[in-house]
Structures are given as C-alpha cells and as structure tokens.
C-alpha cells in the first residue's frame, strides 16, 4: 500500500510542507512543491547540467534511480552522495536545457541537474526506479537530453494527465492511490519509450517496448484478435502521439483509443469490431494508426501487455495465476501470452512476477 506523508524541505526557497506518496515498489510522487532550490538526488546538483526556465507555472520532473530487479540492465547505483561522473559523450555545454511550463523532464538522480529558474514555479516530481520503465543506463543518458515539450502531441495529452494523477494520488485512500500511481508509471513508461524511439534517429528502440525493432514477436497478434492488423513492418516505431510531430490527434482516433482502453479485456476486440463501433471502414482505421507510425494490433498488444505486467507486479505469487491475469486482459492462450511477454520484456511472466515481488518486499522493508 502506498503511504502519504508530509515533509518539509530545507532546500526550498520557501520551506513549505508538501505531500509525498510512496509505494512499496519504490515509486515516490511529490506534489505542491513551490520553487524548490534543487531536485531530489543522490548528490549535489551537477554544475554543468542545468535546467533553464523564464516563466512561472508547473513543471514535471521524473527522477530515474536504480531498480531492484536482480541482473537487470537498468540503471546501476553509485555510492550515496557521490555524483556519478558525466559520460565522455556529454560535453558540459550540451547539458543546458531550456524548459517551459508543463514540460516533462527526465533526469538521473545520480547527476541531478541544477535549476536556473527566473520566476517562482511549482514542481511535481516522480521518483521512479529505472527498472520499472525498462531503461538501461544508456537510455537514461539519452532521455535526460530531450525533455518532453508540453506543446508536443504526446506532451499535450500526458502532461496535464500526469499532473492530475499526482494530485489525485496524494488525496486518495491508500488502495486507490496505489492504482493511480501505477497508472502514472504506465504513462511514464510509454512516454520514455516514445522519446527514446524518436529523439535520436537510427538508434534501437528501448528495451521492453512491444512491436519495436529488436523485440521479435512484439508486433504480432493482439491477444484474441488473431493478429489482424499487426504487421507494421520492420523499423516501425511509436504509438499514437509521437512527441514533436506537428498537428493534433484526429477526433476519430481519440475516440478509437478511448474505445480500446474500455474494451482491452474483451478477447474479441479486433479492427473489425472497432471500425464497426465507430462507423468507419477497417481500411480507414488502419490508415489512422499508420499515420501515427503504428498499427491497431500492435497498440492493443502493447496496452494488454502493460496491464498484465502491472498486475503480475502488484499481486505477486499470492494473487491471480499467470493464466488468470492473461485471460483477464483478453489473451485466449496462456502459451501465446508467455511467448509475446518474453519477446517484449526479455523474461517470462513467471520470472517477472518473482523478481518484481522480491523488489516489492525489499522496498517495503
């Protein structure tokens, strides 16, 4: 269960109390922080890595720290209070990033950036084990260079939602707060995957993203859809809402995405069913997703796997069986589910459940 505490910061320009929500798996969400002098980190801010802003408003920060999964490729820890050296490929003059209100900025807690903000501002901060987002050390360095602009397509959708989730998590009763926190983690995982898939052209997609290069089988069937619409072709990355893409979502696509979320548990969810529900042709439906760099089948599969991954982590051995979790999210075959899960995340559902469970117990202690 998440816990909510009220702490005060000595590093704030105004030493105001702020709510901090902590979950058993090491996620911390801080809201209501007015003009902090520094971001949470394991060492003093790195003087060469600065975040610059000239406007008042709310800014969202995602601090990435070491995950608990044994043997993972996620971010490794360094000694406490010792700043990790900046990698050789990060010249100091390349680390000054300009932000605007509503932007979402990822950072490495070992090399927390200094803040150079000219006006009072509000900070909402998510501290997340990098392992939960499937991020390797090299991924963290890349994503810290590319804040998600509030004006980008994905930023327009997710920045206000993340802000609302943070506040709602702090105000909710523990059980509801835990679910809201996991929703925030899922959104951050999607945001991280998309940033890594588009920020540096020609680089591999992030680990753990179904349907991307390097994850065979990830772009195939979507649970009970029989794989219809799942062939996006090699090199097809991304989901609706690629950051930096001009324009806005088609209203039809927005309704389609909402429909998919509401019917993820239905094993009969398919392009034909979706098209019929929205009075459009299957061909036009596929075009909507193709224009966004993905496919209907890949999107459904990705969302189902994300929900299964979350349930396996939340409930552990003492909860639902793996087959029951798969069935709950629309997978008709436990064997098929295990195969696509391994292709997407590099381990079997059982291995993920067991290692995530150990991480939860360790964090809870």
* Mean pLDDT over all positions: 73
Instruction: Write down the Rg.
Output: 20 Å
Spatial gap, N to C terminus? 12 Å
Shape: globular
* Poorly predicted spans: 6-17, 67-94, 198-248, 359-365
The helix content is 25-40%
Q: Can you count the helices? A: 10
Order of helices and strands: EEEEEEEEEHHHHHHHHHH
Q: How many structurally independent domains?
A: 2
Instruction: Report the portion of residues in β strands.
Output: 15-25%
Structural class: alpha/beta
Order of neighbouring strands in the sheet with most strands: 1-2-3-9-5-7
User: Would you report the number of β strands?
Assistant: 9
Please outline the major beta sheet: 6 strands, mixed
What would you say this structure looks like, in words?
By secondary structure, this protein is of the alpha/beta class. The protein folds into two domains: about 5-200, no CATH class; about 225-365, Orthogonal Bundle (Arc Repressor Mutant, subunit A). The chain is built from ten helices and nine strands. The protein has a six-stranded mixed sheet. The chain has a three-stranded parallel sheet with strand order 6-4-8, with no helix packed on it. A hairpin with an 8-residue loop joins strand 1 (about 5-10) and strand 2. It is globular, with a radius of gyration of 20 Å.
Helix and strand layout, with pairings?
Elements: E1 3-8, E2 17-22, E3 28-34, E4 46-53, E5 57-65, E6 96-98, E7 104-108, E8 113-117, E9 121-129, H1 137-143, H2 153-171, H3 174-198, H4 251-262, H5 271-277, H6 282-291, H7 296-315, H8 322-328, H9 334-345, H10 349-364
Parallel strand pairs: 4-6, 4-8, 5-7, 5-9
Antiparallel strand pairs: 1-2, 2-3, 3-9
Helix pairs in contact: 2-3, 5-6, 7-10
């Amino acid at each position: 269960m998440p816990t909510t505490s009220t702490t005060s910061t000595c590093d704030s320009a105004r030493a105001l109390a702020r709510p901090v929500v902590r979950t058993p798996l090491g996620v911390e969400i801080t809201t209501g922080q007015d003009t902090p002098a520094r971001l949470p980190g394991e060492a003093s801010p790195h003087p060469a890595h600065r975040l610059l802003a000239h406007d008042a408003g709310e800014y969202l920060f995602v601090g990435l720290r070491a995950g608990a999964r044994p043997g993972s490729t996620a971010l490794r820890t360094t000694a406490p209070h010792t700043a990790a050296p900046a990698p050789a490929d990060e010249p100091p003059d390349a680390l000054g990033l300009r932000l605007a209100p509503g932007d979402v900025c990822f950072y490495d807690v070992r090399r927390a950036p200094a803040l150079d903000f000219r006006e009072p501002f509000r900070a909402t901060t998510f501290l997340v084990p990098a392992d939960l987002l499937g991020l390797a050390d090299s991924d963290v360095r890349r994503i810290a260079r590319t804040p998600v602009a509030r004006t980008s397509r994905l930023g327009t959708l997710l920045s206000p939602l993340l802000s609302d989730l943070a506040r709602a998590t702090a105000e909710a009763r523990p059980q509801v707060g835990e679910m809201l926190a996991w929703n925030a983690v899922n959104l951050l995982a999607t945001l991280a995957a998309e940033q890594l898939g588009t920020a540096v052209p020609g680089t591999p997609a992030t680990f753990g993203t179904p349907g991307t290069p390097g994850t065979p089988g990830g772009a195939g069937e979507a649970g009970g859809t029989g794989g219809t619409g799942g062939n996006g072709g090699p090199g097809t990355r991304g989901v609706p809402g690629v950051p930096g893409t001009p324009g806005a979502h088609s209203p039809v696509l927005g309704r389609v995405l909402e429909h998919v979320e509401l019917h993820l548990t239905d094993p009969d969810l398919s392009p034909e069913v979706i098209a019929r529900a929205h009075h459009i042709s299957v061909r036009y439906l596929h075009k909507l997703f193709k224009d966004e760099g993905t496919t209907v089948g890949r999107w459904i599969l990705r969302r189902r796997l994300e929900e299964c991954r979350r349930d396996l982590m939340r409930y552990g051995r003492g909860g639902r069986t793996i087959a029951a979790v798969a069935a709950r999210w629309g997978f008709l075959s436990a064997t098929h589910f295990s195969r696509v899960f391994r292709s997407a995340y590099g381990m079997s559902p059982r291995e993920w459940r067991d290692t995530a469970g150990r991480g939860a117990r360790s964090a809870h202690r």
